[in-house]
């Protein structure tokens, strides 16, 4: 019997750690859970856009590893950021040529932060690529993206688990965080101290939304991986997959959300 329940999936930001989201989506695909709507911040927005376009998780992993899209970024000659996010736009146009939320095969919402007003901004219609870039524009590292006269940066600053766009639309929400921090007995240098502090702040606004999720998937220890450590991509993918299978095993009721005949739409 088909499930008529609408499932929403919210994906956190986390740099290259967001590759673990692909393992999560693969596991959910395998049991027939395909979202009625997906939302994402930063890396979650990138993964979400590709998935909602119709690419399978393994395809997205291959694209990310083979293109290594950070090489498309160039220095920004300004006081606003070190790198210019705009230069990544042409890369996105290869894989999202329509550049339109309405053309995605699964509805998507993207969170960004209006840095001037100090508010979260959600996008789910109109132009697609600029909101993706805004959502993943890490403050101080990339220049803000300007949309409708708003200066936008990484959505994770204020909302690193955007469940709000799924509320009132989806019957069940699955939240996915890719930044779990292992215990650390020895902070060896300032770089580690800063990285850990940033992740702790990101996780604080994730965990404040955890109660809004019917199921919460968080592979242990991913916070130990660097934001740009592309060499760890296969390990991250597998961690997301393994943790999701564990959650399914421990919560068999999640199978009630599956539509056995559902298949993630391919291009």
TrEMBL record:
Gene3D superfamilies: Cytosolic phospholipase A2 catalytic domain. Keywords: Hydrolase, Lipid degradation, Lipid metabolism. This is NTE family protein. A motif (GXSXG) lies at residues 40-44. One of its GO terms (biological process) is lipid catabolic process. SUPFAM superfamilies: FabD/lysophospholipase-like. A motif (GXGXXG) lies at residues 13-18. A motif (DGA/G) lies at residues 154-156.
């Amino acid at each position: 019997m088909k499930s008529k329940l609408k499932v929403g999936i919210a994906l956190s930001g986390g740099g290259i750690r967001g590759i673990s989201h692909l393992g999560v989506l693969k596991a959910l695909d395998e049991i027939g859970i395909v979202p009625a709507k997906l939302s994402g911040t930063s890396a979650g927005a990138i993964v979400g856009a590709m998935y909602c376009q119709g690419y399978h998780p393994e395809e997205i992993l291959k694209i990310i590893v083979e293109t290594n899209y950070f090489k498309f970024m160039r220095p920004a000659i300004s006081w606003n950021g070190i790198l210019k996010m705009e230069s990544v736009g042409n890369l996105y146009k290869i894989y999202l040529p329509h550049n339109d939320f309405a053309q995605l095969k699964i509805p998507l919402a993207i969170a960004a932060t209006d840095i001037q007003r100090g508010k979260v901004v959600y996008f789910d219609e109109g132009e697609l690529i600029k909101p993706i870039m805004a959502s993943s524009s890490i403050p101080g590292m990339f220049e803000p993206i300007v949309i409708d006269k708003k200066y936008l940066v990484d959505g994770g600053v204020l909302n690193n688990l955007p469940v709000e766009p799924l509320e009132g639309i989806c019957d069940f929400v699955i939240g996915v965080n890719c930044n779990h921090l292992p215990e650390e007995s020895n902070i060896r240098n300032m770089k580690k101290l800063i990285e850990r502090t940033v992740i702790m702040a990101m996780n604080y606004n994730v965990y404040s939304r955890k109660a809004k999720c019917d199921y919460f998937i968080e592979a242990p220890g991913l916070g130990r991986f660097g934001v740009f450590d592309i060499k760890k991509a296969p390990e991250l993918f597998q961690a997301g997959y393994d943790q999701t299978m564990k959650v399914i095993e421990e919560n068999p009721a999640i199978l009630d959300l599956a539509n056995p005949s559902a298949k993630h739409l391919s291009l």
